[in-house]
Amino acid sequence: MRLPHSLRLAMGLVRFRKQIPRGVLQTHRIETGVVVSSVVRPMRLIQFIHNDSTGLTGGNSDSLWKYLGFFYRACERIVFRRAAQVVLFNQSDSARIREMSPQLTVAKTWFDPAVFTFGRKSWKSSDSLKVLFVGRLESQKDPALALDTFAEVQKRYPNAEMT
Question: 77: helix, coil or strand?
């Protein structure tokens, strides 16, 4: 049996915990946040949440969390107590998470030319823009939202291309 990637990552974090520098650490999976906040003890933990947990723990999910929803919720409580900041990339779970984590920031996930300039001073609507979607084709990753978002990007950048 193959071990899930997140479990292998957690095992590596435990094994090499003394070599991980103290400071600001970001984790992007709840189980990684539990391990980092338990064994690494960063000076400041920032936990990113990329998905709606009901999709992750629901019956249509392809994640092991669909069988361990109660454990996922316990991991959330642990990490949210320990994190200096929680950054959420979806609005749908924000009310529930804000109850546990008042330090919640809800972030937008689309391209922001004011932030991502890639060496240019600014983007112009006539500039060529390449957009890439990477994700599983399932409801949890919401590829339809990627297409809707790209349609909005194309209004401002008509030459944009999506892969």
Answer: helix
